[in-house]
Amino acid sequence: MKNKLAVLGVLTMVIILAMSFSAPLLTDHNPTETNMLMVEQPPSDEHILGTDGSGRDNWSRLLYGSRVSLIVGFSAMFFTVLIGVILGSLSGYYGGLVDAFYYEVYGSHFSTPFPCISLNYYVFS
Predict the structure, then answer these.
(1) Radius of gyration of the chain measured on its C-alpha atoms
(2) Is residue 125 scored above 90 in pLDDT?
(3) Which of 20, 82, 95, 99 is the most buried (most CB within 10 A)?
(4) Phi-psi bin for 10: left (phi > 0), alpha (psi -120 to 50), beta?
């Protein structure tokens, strides 16, 4: 409880996680079901956030779509941490040339301006 912003951030994340994974309980509408009679309706009792250009409920699309976004985000975070722990452990265990190699690769990556990196990915992919 020392850092109030950290507590607020954790609380917000818990609420978002709870809402996204309890989406079937929070909405009665199918996020992919179209209803051409309800195209671009404003918010109402039936559709909390209104409907989109295809008549789909925006609230249900938000809840179900947040599941995918959270899974992708946490997967990226998990694999980044996994790779970092493996490379850091190897570098710390072996030291010497292995440590120097990782240090140089890391340093060159962060010293190169982003447009140059983007251009390399574009040219060589």
Answers:
(1) 23
(2) no
(3) 20
(4) alpha
Find the range with the poorest average confidence among 53-57, 92-96, 111-115.
111-115
Amino acid at 112: T
Q: Which residue has 């030291």 as its token pair?
A: 95
**CB 7, CB 15: distance < 8 Å:** no
Tokens representing 38 are 């309800």
The amino acid at residue 92 is G
Helices (H) and strands (E) in the chain, counts: 5, 0
Amino acid residing at 104: E
Which residues partner with 51 through β-bridges?
57
22's CB contacts (< 8 A; 6+ apart) are: none
Residue 50 has pLDDT above 90, yes or no: yes
CA pair distance 37, 63, nearest whole angstrom: 22
Question: Hey, how many other C-beta atoms are within 10 angstroms of the C-beta on 44?
Answer: 11
Q: Cβ atoms within 10 A of the Cβ of 117, count? A: 11
Q: Are 43 and 49 in contact (CB under 8 A)?
A: yes
